[in-house]
Amino acid sequence: MTEQVVNASNEWDPLQEVIVGVADHSCFPFEPRIVVENTVPARYWDEHRPHNPFPEEIVAKACEQLDNFAKVLTDLGITVRRPKVVDFSSLETPGYTASMVRDAITVAQDRIIEAPYSWRSRNHESLAYEDLFKHYEAQGAKVYRRPPPPADVDALLGPGERHREYVINDNRPAFDAADFIRLDKTIIGQLSNTTNRSGVKHLEKCLEGTGIEVVLVESLDSHAFHIDATITPLREGLLIYNPTYITVEELQKVERLKGWKFIPAPFPKPREYPPFFMSSAWLIMNILVIDPKRAIIEAEDDHLADLLLEHGITPIRVPFQYVHSLGGSFHCTTVDIRRDHSTSA
Ligand code: ABU
């Protein structure tokens, strides 16, 4: 039987092929002020202007750190592919980045699903991924490209049904793929400042025929924006969670997590530099699990390293703080294309 090139349905089986993002020409995403105020740290709100690149030194070092991360993965025997470099600063409609590929793309079984982003600054991001989509399509994968962005760019921000205090309404499907975590036949997701109910329905439609069910959990965070600094499965039966973003009681409601052990993540060490322009320090949790015994973590996250070792997981420390400045860590900057599910239950 020919091996499927695209086949990844959980976050922990042995990783065989992965996309690692590229940071070149990344810009502060220019979004309406209300969106910026609901999603990113207050001290950097004014940086979100049209065509405003992240500082040159930060981008240069983020590129180096991403290249090094890609080499670490290659040296572990994992096939690494990269998006095309796009100059997001020169686009007529200002763009953001191709480093945070997990926001853009999810993989379920042999399907590659592109997110119907809520942010207008991501409207041209597919330019960076189209060659990869074609590559995987040619090898038998099903690719669900995002629906065309609506002509009314404000459709998500005006009057309309909203979940809690989140900034987007439900007037068209919207999600970022990073609002979902895969556990084989269950995907755990959240409604957030970038994912709405119609977006969840759109994902469910793309999953038809796979037997995969989407289950939503409720975040404690009014600024909720991506679930991959909230829960991180380490292997079957074990996950770390962020006690400031979710309760154990909420996790216990999920049938797929019955019998799992939930470990609170260590509080991150405060840091002034490099800046967290786009996220909180909880990126400590945004790790990449290589297999049930190894995970890539930020080189300086000693408490997390100790915690993983206590649970039989060897941390592989990789420097990544400059990449954090652009909005994510190892999970955000990757899309696992193939994991070896042959040994899982
Ligand atoms: N993109 C992940 C953001 C999570 C956080 O800021 O805590």
TrEMBL record:
Keywords: Transferase. GO terms for molecular function: glycine amidinotransferase activity. GO terms for cellular component: mitochondrial intermembrane space. It comes from the Eukaryota. One of its GO terms (biological process) is creatine biosynthetic process. Pathway: Amine and polyamine biosynthesis; creatine biosynthesis; creatine from L-arginine and glycine: step 1/2. The active site is at D176, H226, C332. Its EC number is 2.1.4.1. Belongs to the amidinotransferase family. This is Glycine amidinotransferase, mitochondrial. The lineage of its organism: Eukaryota, Fungi, Dikarya, Basidiomycota, Agaricomycotina.
